[in-house]
Amino acid sequence: MSRKGILLVGHGSKLPYNKELVLETGRLIAKNYPQFIVKCGFMNMNSPSISDSLEEFRTEPIDVLVVVPLFLAKGVHILKDIPSALGLPEGEMQGKFTLNGKTVPLLYADPIGSDPLLADLMVKNAEKVLGRI
Predict the structure, then answer these.
(1) Which residues carry out catalysis?
(2) pTM for the full model?
(3) Residue 50: which CATH number?
(4) What residues contact residue 105 under an 8 Å CB cut-off, 6+ apart?
(5) Rounded Cα–Cα distance for residues 105 and 48 (Å)
């Protein structure tokens, strides 16, 4: 049975919490969305790297690979660094990925951006801290 792959990309940090946030988000996606095979990769300072995670996908039974950056907004990493690591020309959101002797689509998703769920989360965090006074 073929499934969809998600490569969740984090920035990477010397602080362990940042890596754990990406890994835990990946675990939550895998748990709640079993149709996806989920792996995490980091731009720098943490492992696995983006290229290491791409290599791990080469033996998975996927028919498409979606790269999802765990970033809030577009910036140099989203527009240049991550596409470069994926072998995508700047400005391109789609390419090809070779695995198991076949080629599948590689899709590059937008960062989180402005979303009603993000607004709800910010209010939730504000209400949580307001509950302390």
Answers:
(1) 11
(2) 0.93
(3) 3.40.50.1400
(4) 64, 65, 94, 95, 96, 97
(5) 22
